[in-house]
Write a structure and sequence with these properties.
This protein has seven helices and no strands. With 99 residues, the protein is an all-alpha fold. The protein is elongated.
Length: 99
Amino acid sequence: MLATSVAFTVSARPAFAAAKVDCDAVMGEVNSGKKAKEIATDLSISTSSVYRCKRHAKAAAKAANKSSPQAMSGKEPPAAPMAAPSAAMAAPAAAASPK
């Protein structure tokens, strides 16, 4: 009896996926409008892997937004100063009307 349980323990493998999921391919399918179940069936992965890829993509996008200068300061960058308008542009109606 002991020999049987030892043999079973040695031959048991952890339950890991055979290959990593290609989240780029998953997100391409998600962005094309497919449902999670369809994507899982097409790519031979589980629906939880589809949701995991979506969660990772959302977190990566959020992190990218947080690292931008606008997000760090919380406001828009200042606009470049405009040059002073010319005299013709300052009063176009006055220049065009006859006296």
